[in-house]
Amino acid sequence: MSGDLPIKNFFTRPGCLFDQLRIKSLQEDLLFFFTVVLAASILSTLGTFLLYPDHEPAGLHLIGGMVFGAFGPLQSLITWVVILLSVSLVEHFFLLFVDEHQGFERTMKSAIYALLPTVLFWWTAVILKVPYAGLLLLLCFTLITYFGVRKFHEKSKDRAAFVSLATSAVLLILFSRWISVPGFGL
């Protein structure tokens, strides 16, 4: 059973996947997260150039394209660092209500894996404006946060549910514009 693919474990036994992830160090998790962020940023930049081939860069536009191509991934990294730290702080704030003494490292690990679907598919809600894509991403975030808090912090089901729902509620309020809940937007 130890040879099962991690993605298969996530869909069949998510608790076992988080048990395997708990063994990894925070540095490995951060490296994985930033690798995914860089890959998504580069693919997004390349996708922009491929989707709009009629606007071939020439002259000064070529320089602008190269600058955007170089600084786009850097900007993406900085943005996701801020988001990761913010979400981790909000999650840890709610963990303090349920008597948390495990430290911030486990909270950061939980936030890293909870944010991965958003890193990969944020463009469906923000750019393509697919109806309820943001709400689906928030639901994924809530479920992964629940399993992360449950396994990384060894909390009971009700405490993990409180932390994941409270953190998701804060994100819903802060990012309601992109989550696309009818009647909830500002």
Automatic annotation (TrEMBL):
GO terms for cellular component: membrane. The keyword Nuclease does not apply. The chain crosses the membrane at residues 30-52, 77-98, 110-126, 132-149, 161-179. It is found in: Membrane. It holds the Pfam family Yip1. It is a multi-pass membrane protein. Its main location: membrane. Residues 10-175 form the Yip1 domain. Keywords: Membrane, Transmembrane, Transmembrane helix. It comes from the Archaea. This is Yip1 domain-containing protein. It comes from Methanofollis aquaemaris.
